[in-house]
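Sequence in, structure out. Go.
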Amino acid sequence: MTAKELSDLEVDELEKKSLELSQELFDLKFQLHTGHLENTASISALRKDIARVKTVLRQKRAQQVLG
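Output:
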């Protein structure tokens, strides 16, 4: 998911997306520790997606406060 796609979402949608991605990361880490995860690169990609969502969310909240 790109930052452009995320910037089109509302604050509530971004918060929901952040929770969904965090839950997915938890599930992937659980699979990693139980030995069922085949693609370990998916964890780092998911962490980057979470960071993108949080960055856009922080920018939108700052715009609401300032403007």
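Check: Residues 29 and 35 are 10 Å apart (CA to CA). The radius of gyration is 14 Å.
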